[in-house]
Structure formats: C-alpha cells, structure tokens
Design goal:
It contains 23 helices and 30 strands. It has 717 residues and is of the alpha+beta class. Strands 7, 8, 9, 12, 13, 14, 15, 18, 19 and 24 form a 10-stranded mixed β-sheet that branches.
C-alpha cells in the first residue's frame, strides 16, 4: 500500500551494496536497517516559512485543525501516524508525516489536507522540502546583515530558507544583507525566481552562471570600487544523488561509481571558487545528497590541502541538537565502474589517469590527515531518522587563499579585517578592461559618452561578445532618477515618508511608459549598478506599484501591488483604512462589497477618500486570543460606493483559513471570481468605475521572461 508505484524497478543494486559495505560508512550491525530504509518511500516533510509574522498562526492552524483531522485515519489499510515536528528544527517550524507524496495526492480522505498544502505552498507560507535539505541553511548561521551567495541554488528551497533568515526582524523592511542565488541552468533559474518570489523580498537577486567560474563582483564603498566578498556561502553542489534513492527510484538501476568519478572535479572547482569569494572569518557550507566519500570527504580534504591553512573545518556537533549523524571518515578507497579497487594514487595505472585523479584519495601523510579533522563532517544516514542520505561540511576562512595573497603590508599599519578589497594598480586595470572590453561598437560609444551606463542608473543586459549567453535575453534593470516627474504624484497621493528610498526604485524598460515599478535594497542596487557587464541577472526586486490602465484621470496613475505591500507599508502615511476581522472576511469573499456591508468605522475612514488605491490594515487585538493574532496588510481599491481587494487567490484562501473559514467557504471564494492578481479575470468594481482598475496588470508582464513555473490557476487543487 505504501509503495511508490514503481513495480517495474527492482530496488536492488549489488555493486552499490558491495561498494558501501567495503567503505564501512554504515555502523557495524546496521546494514540491513540501512538497506531497508532506502527501499521505503520517503515520508513527506513540510516547513513553515519562518520570517512571515503569520508563521505562528499557520502552525496553530496546522496543529489544531488539519493535523487533528488526520487522527484515527486509515489509508489503504495503513493507519496514518500523526505528523511530528523535526526534533532538530527550531521552533517546531518543520514537520514530517509517514505519508508518501503519492498517498497524499491520491487519497480522497486526504484531499482537504493536500489542497491546503498546495495552496499554502503557492502563497509562500509552507515549503514542501526534504528534511535533510533544511540542514545546510541552518548550519550557515546567517544573520540579517550578511551578504550571502547560494552557488547552485535551483530549485530554491534552501534559498527561501536563507531569505527568511535575512528577514528575521519583520519590523525592518530592508535588511542590510542580501542573497545572490545562482544556477548554471537558465531554465531552472526561472524556477528559482518562482520560488523566491513567493517570499516577496527586496533582497534577493537571481543570476545565471557556471558556479565554478562565477564572476567576482565589485561594489562601490565610499566612492572606491572594492571587490565583493561574501559573509556566507552555500555550496550545495551537483552530485550523483545516491542519498535520494527513496524518492528518485531510478537511481537504483543507474547507480555506478562512474558518476562520482566524473563529478568530483566539478565539485572541487565549485567549492574552490566559493572559498575564494568568502570573506575572512566567513562561513561556507559544502553539501551533497550523496553518501560517496569521493564527492564528500575527498573534495573537502583536497580543498583543505590546497588552502594551506586558509580554511578549516568548523566543529558544529552542538549546533543542531536532536539531529543524528555519523562523523566523516578518514580512510576510503576508489573503485572503478567495473569493480576494481585502488587505495592510493601511485597504484592507478597510467591509462586510468584521466578518470581517476590524485585528489580523490585521502592525504597520505597521517599528521596532515589528522590536522584536517575530517571527523567534523556530518553524514546523515536514512535509517537513523527516516530521512534521505546527506553529507554536510562547514568551513571557516582564516586567511586569503594562498594564490590570492598579496605581498606583506608595511610595518605599523593595522591589518585589514578583510581580504584585499582595494584593487591595486594591476587589479584596477583588470577591472577597467572587464568593464569596457568586449562591448559592441554602439554600446562602447554610449558607455564612453555617459562615463559608463552606471550614471544613468541603467543596468543593461551583459554584452554578448563578452560572455556566452544562453536562454532568454533579459530586459535591462533601469533605476528611476530621483527627480523623475513620475514620482511626484505617487509621493503626494500616498504621503510617502521622507525616509522612503526613492533611489531604489527600478523598472524593466528603457523606453515607453513605465508599467510596473520594482524595488530593491540599496545594497543590491550597488551590486546591480557596478556589475551589469559582468553578471547575467535573471531577476531581482519586488513589484510595488502597477500602472492603472486609465489611471491618468485619477490623482495617481499607479496602484499598489500586493507583492510588495509589506515592504512599502512602513513608508505610506495616507490612504490607510483600518479594518476589523469581519471586514477582512467580507472583503476577501465578496467581489466588490458596498460600503454599507462593512463596519461603520471602516465606512467613516473610506467615505472621504478620493477614488483609487488604498491600504487595508488589520491589527490583532491581544485581548481577543481567539481572533487572528498577526497583522494583515492588503491592497485594495476605493471605488464610488464599494471597496475591493487586489490579492492573489491563494493568498486570499490563506487569510480566510487563518480566520477559521472552512473548506466550503474556500470553494465558494474560489468560485466567486477571486482570480489571482493579474490573471485578467479580476472583474472591475461593480459601481461603474471600470476605468479605475480595468483589470489587474498581468503579474509578470515586465519580467519578460517566460516563467515555466505553473500559474496559480493551473495548479492541481
């Protein structure tokens, strides 16, 4: 009953068993349990996104409603166990069940629970993520001021964890830190964008590069160009994936040692590139979903050896109490795909030298090996806590990598706290040539004329001659000048606070009407403006305003976008209507409720406002513990005699669920034309101000890239 539905694949591979028994990665006497666990389907795990103020409410809703409904439930003759929190994940924000994904999708008794998961995942409140994949971001120990690089980020579940860490303090709309999420695969980058967009953060940038040669970026620090070094780097490298056999069943028949031998070099290059870009004192997490020492300890040992003391393994044994893991191994052998073993490089015949490399073997010097402390690596075995297999190592940088070291500084001057940041003469020249070299003729003339497009605030697409570009050609990122006449009516209409960072507003078009306005943090603005020729940016910024189709007749041509409202709200001083919980229910279940349907307090605030975009704010009342206990900010439209909300469908359903409205209400809401913001089916307000809205703008029309991720409407319900 619990099988994964792959009867034709026999879960057996003699070579796999022979290999890992020989390497002794499983403790004595546990081999049968290890193999048994690998043959069982992986249990479904979910994580509640931690930075939203709604996390506690979702947890409350899950425990008191959805989990209760699973009590005493039987599916295919098997009792459904109650979901349990992962003991090592902080604040009960991650849970696992004994339900496989197939059962969740197929069982009529679980339909409501499955719908809840799909809908909440879509609105970014829950991530359906494998338990072991939650470990690397936790060990990265990121803080809101950290500059973070995620080197191989797609599909993005770890990236979303990092974004949450940046927004640990919800009262700060723009944390100082940021996440640059990279992936080599252009198509997967759009999946990454889709995942990150659900968290609506102005501090994330998605880029498309080969991680092993990801370009070194520069930033402007008080008028001087300096190299950007990251405080935290996540290096979750491509791997053979034999730790994922429980969900990727075809690994059973495809497994061979050749995969590991072929990937080892790439993994080492990516980890080395990461180490180069890490700031001194920074932390890098290297992880794979493989159990193979060739991809795990061999890469770490080789990296430590060539770092000559610049890197060391951190002891993280006490950082995740409750997590069971095996220490890294210090001795291993290399096996060819036909079963031949080698225990040292010297024994490898010349004909095999292209396939087997010296970096795949443990260091031969026992003192050197001991000093590496490879036992500080963590290997997670599937049978210990019913998870997938995984490997993690945490590296700390003590000094520059040996090949990056500069001549010693003059005596008497304090050592710089970071790696060489200010480029010397040679570096400056290199930077200049990088900035201008390889640009097409017309672009070159324009660059010379404007002293670099930086001043214009335009970050154009990278020049095609300089970099091999694959995939979709991105629109430029154009920062709006602070004196742009566009901004004045917006500032006036919403009474924006003087502290509002206008310089961080950008659009994705150089000519014609600006239809959507996006916002990034000032740190990402710095990165964008200084690296447009060097880096292929796929997406950044959150949408904060959209142009009304016939907005010229109103006081302000731009309406607020729900995607960016939590970032924008702290700066808005007018057009805010405080609403009660009953009002929120009415606004989210009815298309255009007339003023008379809302409370008198709401009506008295709305009646004197001019037609146009409004903010609807619900503040929790601590004296009523049964009511919703998190603040809610919604975008709305004040029509002639009614108010409507502009909120994507899954977000509506989310708020309604948090307020205890049950599934029938959800179905009714879903049928009441509550389309996602921007699907074009948002009907205009019924009291005649059609021109006011004319339907929401398509949500990603300016992110010209075709997002392969399914739209909300296309998701299975």
């Amino acid at each position: 009953g619990w099988e994964g539905g792959y009867p034709e694949i026999v879960k057996e591979n003699k070579l796999f068993e022979h290999y890992y028994q020989e390497l002794k990665i499983v403790p004595e006497g546990e081999w049968d349990q290890f193999m048994e666990a690998l043959r069982e389907p992986l249990p479904a795990t979910l994580r509640i996104t931690g930075y939203k103020s709604h996390a506690k409410e979702i947890l409350h809703c899950l425990k008191n409603k959805y989990f209760k409904e699973l009590e005493d439930l039987e599916v295919d003759g098997q009792k459904v166990e109650m979901p349990q929190p992962l003991s090592w994940y902080p604040e009960e924000l991650a849970w696992h069940t004994n339900l496989s994904r197939k059962i969740l999708r197929k069982s009529p008794q679980l339909e409501k629970f499955h719908q809840f998961l799909v809908s909440e995942t879509e609105s970014g409140n829950i991530s359906r993520q494998e338990a072991v994949s939650m470990i690397p971001p936790l060990l990265l120990n990121a803080h809101p001021h950290h500059k973070i690089l995620d080197m191989c980020a797609a599909p993005g579940s770890k990236t979303t964890q990092l974004i949450e860490m940046l927004h640990a303090d919800m009262s700060v709309p723009f944390p100082e830190g940021f996440v640059i999420a990279n992936d080599v695969d252009n198509k997967r980058c759009y999946l990454l964008v889709h995942q990150a967009k659900r968290l609506s953060s102005p501090c994330i940038m998605v880029v498309n590069h080969d991680a092993s040669s990801i370009p070194r970026l520069t930033i402007d620090v008080n008028g001087t160009k300096e190299i950007l070094f990251y405080d935290r780097i996540l290096c979750d490298v491509p791997c053979s994936g034999d730790g994922t056999m429980r969900k990727n069943i075809d690994v059973w028949k495809k497994w061979t040692t050749l995969n590991s031998l072929q990937l080892h070099g790439l993994q080492l290059r990516i980890a080395t590139r990461g180490a180069e870009q890490l700031v001194e004192g920074g932390r890098m997490v290297y992880s794979t979903c493989s159990l193979n020492p060739i991809e795990d300890e061999a890469v770490i040992a080789s990296l430590l050896e060539k770092s000559e003391g610049a890197l060391e393994l951190a002891d993280v044994s006490s950082e995740l109490p409750g997590l069971k893991w095996m220490p890294g191994i210090t001795h291993w052998k290399v096996m060819t795909k036909d079963g031949q073993w080698f225990s040292e490089w010297e024994a490898v015949p010349h004909g095999r030298h292209t396939q087997i490399r010296p970096t795949m073997f443990p260091p031969s010097d026992p003192e050197k090996l001991q000093a590496m402390h490879l036992e500080r690596c963590l290997r997670i075995l599937p049978h210990h806590q019913n998870t997938g297999g995984f490997f993690v190592a945490v590296l700390v940088k003590k000094s520059s990598m040996p090949w990056n070291k500069r001549p010693p500084k003059l005596q008497g001057r304090p050592a710089e706290p970071r790696e060489p940041m200010r480029p010397g003469p040679a570096d400056s020249a290199e930077l200049e040539s990088k900035a201008v070299g390889g640009v097409g003729g017309a672009e070159l003339a324009e660059t010379a004329e404007n002293d670099g497009s930086k001043r214009d605030g335009v970050c154009g697409p990278p020049p095609s001659k300089k970099m091999k570009l694959f995939g979709f050609k991105e629109d430029p990122f154009v920062f709006i000048p602070e004196d742009d006449p566009l901004l004045l009516p917006i500032q006036k209409f919403y009474a924006l606070d003087p502290s509002f960072p206008k310089m961080n507003l950008l659009t994705r078009t150089t000519e014609g009407k600006k239809r959507q306005l996006y916002m990034v943090s000032k740190e990402l603005r710095n990165v964008l403006l200084n690296n447009s020729e060097r880096v292929k940016v796929i997406n950044t910024g959150i949408k904060v305003w959209c142009r009304n189709n016939s907005g010229e007749e109103f006081d302000c041509p731009f309406r607020l976008a729900q995607e960016g409202i939590y970032t924008l709200y702290p700066f808005i001083n007018s057009r805010i209507i405080t609403v009660s919980m009953e009002d929120v229910k009415i606004l989210l279940t009815q298309e255009n409720p007339f003023f008379r349907k809302l409370s008198s307090e709401t009506y008295s605030q709305a009646k004197d406002l001019a037609k146009g975009s409004v903010v609807l704010k619900y503040e929790p009342d601590p004296t009523k513990p049964d009511a919703l206990q998190c603040p809610v900010v919604l975008c709305g439209w004040r029509g002639k005699a009614s108010i409507r909300t502009f909120v994507p469908k899954n977000e509506r359903l989310h708020y309604l669920r948090m307020m205890g409205l049950d599934a029938p209400a959800e179905k009714k809401a879903a049928g009441a034309g509550l389309a996602p913001e921007g699907t074009g089916s948002s009907a205009p307000p019924e009291d005649g101000d059609v021109g006011a809205e004319g339907g929401a703008e398509p949500a990603a029309s300016v992110d010209a890239a075709p997002d392969p991720a399914p739209t909300e409407a296309a998701l299975p319900r």
